[in-house]
Write a structure and sequence with these properties.
Shape: rod-shaped
Structural class: mainly alpha
Mean pLDDT: 80
Number of helices: 9
Oligomer: single chain
Radius of gyration: 51 Å
Order of helices and strands: HHHHHHHHH
Length: 220
């Protein structure tokens, strides 16, 4: 093989090696031609948008923001750590909420069905009407009276008093006013032989004695 053939062979190899580079260069040129209009439109759009904030934006403000960010890196890290803690807490509480919230909704629905909220709303309305009707001084006076009534209610809460009140409450159901007739002295004497009348007279006398003690207490 002479020198001329060697040169031609090397030229062929160089030409084969340059073919991919030529294709790449052509592809790059085509890409540049395709992207150039898009880049120009994007750059133009960016300039138009920045014009809206040109009056409010200063380069010094950007530098100030960067410096403040660098000075507060520790605070930012601390904030992120706290945020991670909150996220972990939410992940921990989420299963509990999934089981608790439906129960709360069910319970609130039961209260609504039973009229608890309507009753409470009516109570608030009554309280508002009372507040309009009475002054704070009236409430203070009623508070003193209510305290005294609590003492009376405490006395009424004794078992023997409750038994007596329950029995007295049964009197109207045992009394038939239509069957009651007028009686004279003779009828009164005849009725006194009844055991019920005797017991009733005993109760009346006992109440009369108790009323006499009340009178004595007032005199004292």
């Amino acid at each position: 093989m002479n020198n001329e053939e060697l040169i031609l062979q090397r030229l062929d190899r160089l030409e084969a090696a340059l073919v991919p580079l030529s294709e790449f260069s052509r592809s790059l040129s085509e890409l540049k031609e395709d992207l150039t209009p898009l880049v120009n439109r994007g750059f133009k759009f960016l300039i138009e948008e920045l014009q809206d904030v040109e009056s409010a934006f200063q380069l010094e403000d950007l530098f100030q923001l960067i410096k403040r960010t660098l000075r507060n890196v520790k605070n930012l890290n601390y904030t992120l750590e706290q945020l991670e803690t909150v996220v972990d807490l939410v992940k921990t509480v989420e299963p509990l909420l999934k089981s608790t919230v439906p129960q709360m909704i069910k319970r609130l629905d039961e209260l609504e069905q039973n009229g608890v909220f309507r009753t409470y709303s009516a109570m608030l309305s009554v309280r508002a009407k009372i507040a309009k009707q009475y002054t704070p001084e009236d409430f203070e006076l009623m508070g003193d009276v209510f305290t005294s009534l609590l003492g009376v209610m405490k006395k009424l809460a004794k078992p023997e008093v409750l038994i007596m009140l329950e029995r007295m409450a049964e009197i109207p159901s045992c009394l038939d006013l239509d069957a009651c007739e007028s009686i004279g002295p003779v009828g009164l004497i005849r009725a006194s032989y009844s055991d019920d009348v005797k017991q009733g007279l005993g109760v009346v006398i006992g109440l009369t004695k108790a009323l006499g003690k009340l009178k004595g207490g007032e005199a004292g």
